[in-house]
Amino acid sequence: MIHVESLTKYYNDLCAVDQISFDIKTGEILGLLGPNGAGKTTTLRMLTGFIHPTSGNISVKDFNIDEHPLEIKKLMGYLPESAPLYHDMLVYDYLSFVLSIRGIGVEKKTPRIHKLADLCGINEIMHKPVGELSKGYRQRVGLAHAMMSDPEILILDEPTSGLDPNQIVEIREIIRRIGKEKTVILSTHILSEAEATCDRIIIINHGRIVADGSAETLKQSASGEYLINILLKNAEFKSVKDELLSIDGIKSVTPIENEEYLQVKLLCKSPSDLRGNIYRKIKQTDWILVGFYRETRTLENIFRELTREV
Amino acid sequence: MRQVMNILKKECGLYFISPIAYIVISIFLLVTGWFFFSTFFLYNQADLRNFFNLLPLIFSFVVPAVTMKLFSEELSAGSYETLLTLPVTFSDVILGKFLAAVVFVIAMLVPTLAYPITVSFLGQLDWGPVAGGYIGAVLLGAAFSAIGLFASSLTRNQITAFIIGMTICFGMTLIDKMLFFLPLSILGFLQFIGADFHFQNISKGIIDSRDILYFLSVTFVALFGAHLVMQEKN
Fold first, then answer.
1. What are A275-287's pLDDT values in tens digits?
2. Mutating which of B83, B85, B88, B230 best tests the A interface, going by the most A Cβ atoms within 10 A?
């Protein structure tokens, strides 16, 4: 559906996006993650044709963005960051303007506006000027604007910013519902959001792709390391450490402050689950095992590892 | 062309829902009305020469004030991004906005038709120069709108846009009055650049293709400039 090849953007001497390449399939929900200034917005703006890449190539379906920008714009609905809209215009007038620009006939206009007003929950504010709306409502109008012509590709730059928790859940549901038939690309720095909504996540840092895959594969693939927590009674840290380090695959044993029990954290590096080996080892001793669990790696950890400043 | 119409409609809507439109029109009518009628009875002549003499000067202040927001407001609010990611081309946006400014200038001129009507009651009014003057006024307004639009595309600050636009329009109005200071060799050329020179020709009732061509080329050059600025921003 969308093919991006070695996309690069320089702002004067500052390299905002550096040789990014990826493909997006129809019906995929892609999350673009990254710290502030990583190049998310710049990438999205280049995809929509709002700014011109310094070098590189974008094609959507069979259209190249240099040769057929209008065709591509017709396929796309775009919600820019912080939903900039005309302050003096009424919401209804604005949406109706968008529909005319998108070439939707008068007779289809009203039902379409009604449908989206219901979907985005903006029925009560249809006849207010955009400038008077709260941030959340403006965001919803922006979302309605992006979905107005039922586009095949939806590009959303931080769609849930400024919304309250209920609305965030609603918007995510809407995105997931649309994502069944449409291609959605969204940028966010809220990790749980990316995990909850996206089929695929691309993490960018300093304009480069540092990770690409589903939330699950990202969690697993991250260097094959994982952590195991153990709570013990009737045991000495020193002997525990010696015993456990003798197991193949355990890299380190660190004590964790705990008043009642001896708690240790094991850093394991092994393709298989080492819990069986650890259990057998403990069974040979007279330690009392109180707690034993493998820590699931969160996207947060992965994100921090990948985007940490060196 | 359909997109130009859509943008024109939107811009006109934005003009006339804000009170600024009516304030600008009122100030324009007040200023022209005062300058025209305060000396009208002293001249004791039933014509509108005084009105048309002043028009380029007044337009060079008023028209940039009308056009200053066209791009600047969008750039500072960020709606420029929303607009350009809709399926429109640069020319659609520029033409739509330009035509909206022209519509506004015409709306501003319509109430001044009261002047010739009043004058025609007072004496024998020659309608030829009046018609010429209004055609000239629309052409002049269009040229100044294009210049103002260009100025507006340069900056996100409306005041800066106004000052740039006003300076260019004011310079073009006054240049043929400053010829005294300028070298003789380029005098003819500079006189030809002056907007007032061409406007006064038309407002005498002489519609010369050179004058019309002048206004059309100024309009085209300014709009093309705005197009280049948009391309540069992209």
1. 888 888 888 888 8
2. B85
